[in-house]
Design brief:
Among the domains are: 186 residues, no CATH class; 165 residues, no CATH class. It is built from 21 helices and nine strands. A hairpin with a 5-residue loop joins β2 and β3. It is an alpha+beta fold. The protein is 67% helix and 9% strand. The chain has a nine-stranded mixed β-sheet with strand order 5-6-4-7-3-2-8-1-9.
Length: 608
């Protein structure tokens, strides 16, 4: 048996360890390939402006850099978990040079197959993403064979695995033969947490949260970098110091420690938290980035579309009658040619010297009836209008009285929310007998179609392109979606990549510690541990591993999204909670699946 045969057989015999590393690297390849499919997709590449193309390139670099560190970290964990194996190989006569060569060859072989299989899997995965994007954002990303993406992915990851194979040489355990052979058998000793760093974890995260939640408006970007620094550093101390301190305190409480199987779960939990501190830290920060990126983009899109939804009518044209007459005639002819039935009305708006828009009560109530909204009764005094849904967070001065051209003042009796006209400026409804002659006036003609499909409304709304006085609600909304779809898609895709990658971190850590778990549960199983109790302990252990960093990242994400919405003087939006809720649901499903497979694997080995 030559050296290469030995390496191959050794890889096969340790397939469960190699498989975890192989799947994690394969996932990185698949993610990068999928992104390059979109980056070079004709529908995106040909339709993006220069800034968007630069953004796509930057995103590709970010994902590639993330893949490098993810694979390097996975390989590092993989190598560090094989100390005892390396010691046995060295006692059989393997030299340190041969050991490095073996690891180098293993990494290249795994990298080669992960690149090829990951690219193939990426072709299928990318088509699923394309299908979903077509349904969600109404943009046609057709199928094409991604030759360019395939070539770039293969070359990029060949270089990546060559670089990692080189760097990993310096991460091989530099211990004596005796220490390598006893790896895993030696106790971990006592574990102590730093009281200073424990307190700092609370202070840093608390102060970061306080600043993020209290600052509003234009000051949000100013404090962003300091807040990120405080929270990131505090999170680091939280996992490797504060969590250990909390677990040690729980172990001292007999009512908790001696309850059922808690003794087994808590006995080495502090060491697990310490060992996984870096993994938890990376997962929580990566997941927070995913939450913030997707929540911000999705929230901003919703705010823009909500602002458009303030338009109660599908089509409007405003201006002086002389300017709008031809537009109205042409548009009515278009509607007639398409056989579309509409309700049509007019609204005259007057503007005084203080730039307050005034609408007569009867005119307002006519269009309110068209919109099927409540009428307004002025009762001899003016009523100031406020937007029914102020999604933009704009503040408008409160009116107490309104000056007319003849010098008289109309008192403002009350305020009413409206979804009939745009109320993002100073606007009021006045009694019909109010003398508005001499004020500048604007006539708005309104069309409300009956039983017309979304696509048909978009088609008719194209009339707006050559007639800028016309406002087409659905067409404008779809134009916004079309313009922002590539950027929104890229942002959401990167966020999903980061979150799923974070889950892969946890999954890999779970399987890298399997040998330790099997040995521990074997000893307890011989003492009479039931299958039900074993399942409970494993589920608890997997649950702690999966949910500890996610709970932290959800809290971080909620604070980050709240701070971003404060830029517009708003609180946390429903879009932000929806994003967080979806990711928590994904993590729960991930946990439910992972725990079943892990338990079956451990239970089979425990019984062996």
């Amino acid at each position: 048996m030559n050296f290469k045969q030995f390496v191959i057989r050794n890889t096969i015999r340790n397939k469960h360890l190699y498989m975890a590393y192989f799947l994690s690297t394969l996932f990185s390849v698949m993610v990068f390939f999928t992104f390059t499919v979109f980056a070079f997709h004709p529908a995106l590449a040909n339709g993006l402006n220069k800034n968007a193309q630069i953004g796509m390139l930057a995103a590709a670099i970010i994902i590639y850099g993330f893949s490098f560190f993810f694979v390097l970290y996975s390989m590092d964990v993989f190598v560090q978990s094989r100390k005892k194996e390396f010691g046995l190989l060295m006692i059989q006569g393997m030299s340190p040079k041969q050991l490095k060569k073996m690891v180098f060859i293993e990494n290249l072989v795994i990298g080669f197959f992960a690149t090829i299989i990951g690219s193939i899997a990426g072709i299928g995965f990318s088509q699923i993403i394309l299908l979903v994007s077509n349904k969600l954002i109404h943009v046609n990303f057709g199928f094409y064979f991604p030759t360019q993406a395939l070539v770039i992915t293969i070359i990029s990851f060949i270089l990546l695995f060559l670089a990692i194979s080189f760097f990993i040489q310096f991460r091989l355990p530099k211990l004596s033969l005796q220490e390598l052979l006893k790896a895993g058998d030696l106790g971990k000793g006592t574990l102590k947490s730093s009281h200073l760093k424990t307190i700092l974890a609370i202070l840093l995260i608390g102060s970061g949260y306080a600043i993020a939640l209290l600052v509003k408006g234009t000051m949000v970007p100013v404090v962003m970098i300091p807040v990120i620094f405080l929270v990131v550093l505090g999170t680091r101390f939280l996992f490797n110091q504060l969590s250990v301190s909390i677990i040690e305190r729980l172990k001292k409480k007999q009512s908790i420690f001696w309850k059922k199987t808690n003794m087994v779960v808590l006995s080495d939990l502090a060491f697990r938290m310490k060992d996984n501190a870096r993994s938890f830290f990376l997962v929580s920060i990566i997941s927070t980035v995913a939450f913030a990126a997707i929540g911000t983009l999705y929230g901003f899109q919703n705010m823009i579309l909500d602002a458009m939804n303030q338009m109660p009518f599908e089509f409007e044209v405003s201006g002086a009658p002389a300017d709008t007459a031809q537009v109205k005639q042409d548009f009515n002819q278009l509607l007639a040619s398409q056989g579309i039935q509409v309700d049509e009305g007019e609204l005259t708006t007057y503007t005084n010297a203080e730039h307050v828009s005034l609408i007569k009560e009867s005119d307002y109530n006519k269009v309110a009836e068209m919109a099927k909204k409540p009428a307004i009764q002025t009762q001899g005094e003016a009523v100031q209008l406020r937007p029914a849904n102020n999604s933009g967070g704009m503040e408008v001065s409160k009116l107490t009285q309104i000056a007319l051209s003849d010098g008289t003042q109309i008192p403002v009796d009350k305020e009413e929310k409206t979804a009939v006209v745009s109320a993002f400026g100073m606007i009021a409804v006045v009694p019909d007998d109010t003398q508005l002659s001499g004020l500048e006036s604007t006539v708005t003609t309104i069309w409300q179609p009956k039983n017309v499909s979304y696509d048909k409304l978009v088609e008719i709304g194209k009339f707006q392109e050559k007639n800028m006085l016309l406002s087409a609600k659905t067409y404008t909304q779809q134009s916004i979606i079309d313009n922002f779809a590539p950027i929104l898609f890229v942002g959401i895709f990167i966020g999903i990549v980061f979150f799923v990658s974070a889950g892969s971190f946890l999954y890999f850590r779970l399987y890298s510690d399997m040998d330790v778990d099997v040995e521990k549960f074997k000893m307890i199983y011989k003492m009479g541990l039931s299958k039900k109790e074993l399942k409970k302990m494993i589920y608890q252990q997997v649950g702690i591993l999966f949910f500890t960093p996610i709970i932290v990242s959800v809290i971080h994400g909620a604070v980050a999204l709240t701070a971003m919405y404060h830029l517009f003087n708003q609180g946390m939006q429903s879009a932000g909670w929806q994003v967080l809720g979806v990711f928590v649901l994904i993590q729960v499903l991930y946990y439910l699946i992972a725990r079943v497979f892990y338990f079956k694997k451990v239970y089979r080995l425990v019984q062996a």
